[in-house]
């Protein structure tokens, strides 16, 4: 039965939650081989994409207090902060200087900020940085806005969109099974609200992605249920919202350093991460764009992930504060050169994309890596090979 499930997935057939659960009991190389084959079929087999962007955390003050979070502060702690518009503009100018195209802007759930802070901030960014896309506010923040600002969800999203919001990142997905969420963070947004908010965002044409974090001690069945829930929402969005579903899927492992879960939640090893990534590729038959995670896994495991179902290397971030606060690999950003190197070295063509996973440029690999054009190493083809580059750019780092 277990081997038949793998054959079914390889044929492109949809797996039930029960069948997905069986995959965890198969040798990883077998699952990975099917995952890589499906990845080659469902996204450009030669290309691995990434985004030049910046994370901006406008405030670390948060009233939710998740047990797994080392980022948040109470307003009374000396290192709590809220950025003003000029400080945020300065960060965006740094992004513009390296050719970046979007900011991923999230905060804690700060009870002191009025709606006008957010709408004014969106307008300020659009006025001063018109080429930058703004993907901002986790479902947790949106839920708080709903509860605090006297607007229903439609009115709230319309207000934010009118002010300049382009997308709503799907942060806070973790495991969308409330039994797991209640243990990890009792005050955390529940799965029903997470889907309700992302569904409304998709209906209104906003960018969204789906996410997953493993390592809370969740069961394989709960992981499978999480994947099926995301797949169901994707089906609905593709069917009812003109194809505006989740643009991609990002998955990483729980980091617990400096958190209340340290020593209590098991986390996940590299093997588990790669296994989960491969199974996600098999389960999410309606999601072509699956990301590798270098902030949680480091560059080396993230590079390996390109043979376990991943087709995308995420983004440069320039400044990552949330995963790194709880451990990660002590890296808050990646340079274009680093991402180009690990993608090229794995045998794929690096491509710079926008947040909707549309390719906007192919970096000149030899130039970015400082290689001579006749250097054979630059022409090496392991898994994907190099293709003609229709729009070569020299991406600085
Ligand atoms: S994960 Fe987000 S909501 Fe939870 S405590 Fe941290 S900042 Fe607040």
UniProtKB/TrEMBL annotation:
Family listed: Belongs to the radical SAM superfamily. MqnC family.
Domain Radical SAM core: 48-300
Cofactor(s) of this protein: [4Fe-4S] cluster
Pfam family, one: Radical_SAM
Binding site for [4Fe-4S] cluster: 62, 66, 69
Protein's recorded name: Cyclic dehypoxanthine futalosine synthase
The protein's Enzyme Commission number: 1.21.98.1
Keywords attached to this entry: 4Fe-4S, Iron, Iron-sulfur, Menaquinone biosynthesis, Metal-binding, Oxidoreductase, S-adenosyl-L-methionine
Positions contributing to (3R)-3-methyl-D-ornithine binding: 138, 293, 315
Reactions accelerated catalytically: dehypoxanthine futalosine + S-adenosyl-L-methionine = cyclic dehypoxanthinylfutalosinate + 5'-deoxyadenosine + L-methionine + H(+)
Top-level division of the source organism's lineage: Bacteria
Protein purpose: Radical SAM enzyme that catalyzes the cyclization of dehypoxanthine futalosine (DHFL) into cyclic dehypoxanthine futalosine (CDHFL), a step in the biosynthesis of menaquinone (MK, vitamin K2).
Pathway(s): Quinol/quinone metabolism; menaquinone biosynthesis
Free-text comment on the cofactor: Binds 1 [4Fe-4S] cluster. The cluster is coordinated with 3 cysteines and an exchangeable S-adenosyl-L-methionine.
């Amino acid at each position: 039965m277990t081997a038949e499930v793998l054959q079914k997935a390889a044929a492109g057939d949809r797996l039930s939650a029960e069948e997905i659960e069986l995959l965890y009991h198969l040798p990883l190389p077998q699952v990975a081989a099917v995952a890589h084959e499906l990845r080659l079929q469902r996204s450009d087999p030669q290309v691995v994409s990434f985004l030049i962007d910046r994370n901006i955390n406008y405030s670390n003050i948060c009233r939710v207090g998740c047990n797994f979070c080392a980022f948040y502060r109470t307003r009374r702690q000396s290192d709590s902060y809220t950025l003003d518009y000029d400080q945020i503009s300065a960060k965006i100018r740094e992004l513009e200087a390296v050719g970046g195209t979007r900011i991923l802007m999230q905060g804690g759930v700060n009870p002191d900020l009025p709606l006008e802070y957010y709408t004014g901030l969106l307008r300020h960014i659009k006025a001063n940085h018109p080429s930058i896309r703004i993907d901002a506010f986790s479902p947790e923040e949106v839920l708080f806005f709903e509860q605090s600002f006297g607007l229903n969800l439609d009115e709230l999203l319309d207000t934010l969109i009118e002010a300049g919001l382009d997308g709503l990142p799907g942060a806070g997905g973790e495991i969308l099974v409330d039994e797991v969420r209640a243990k990890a963070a009792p005050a955390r947004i529940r799965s029903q609200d997470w889907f309700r908010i992302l569904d409304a965002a998709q209906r209104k044409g906003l960018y969204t992605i789906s996410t997953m974090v493993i390592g809370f001690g969740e069961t394989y069945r709960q992981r499978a249920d999480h994947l099926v829930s995301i797949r169901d929402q994707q089906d609905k969005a593709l069917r009812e919202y003109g194809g505006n579903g989740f643009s991609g899927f990002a998955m990483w492992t729980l980091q617990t350093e400096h958190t209340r879960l340290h020593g209590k939640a098991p986390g996940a090893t590299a093997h588990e991460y790669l296994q989960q990534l491969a199974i996600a590729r098999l389960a999410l038959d309606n999601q072509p764009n699956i990301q590798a995670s270098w902030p949680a896994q480091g560059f080396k495991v993230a590079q390996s992930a390109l043979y376990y179902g991943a087709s995308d290397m995420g983004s440069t971030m320039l400044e990552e504060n949330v995963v790194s606060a709880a451990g990660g690999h002590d890296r808050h950003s990646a340079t274009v050169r680093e991402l180009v190197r690990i993608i090229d070295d794995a045998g794929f063509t690096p491509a710079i994309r926008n947040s909707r996973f549309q390719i906007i440029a192919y970096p000149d690999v030899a130039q970015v890596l400082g290689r001579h054009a006749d250097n054979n190493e630059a022409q090496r083809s392991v898994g994907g090979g190099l293709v003609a580059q229709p729009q070569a750019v020299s991406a600085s780092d």
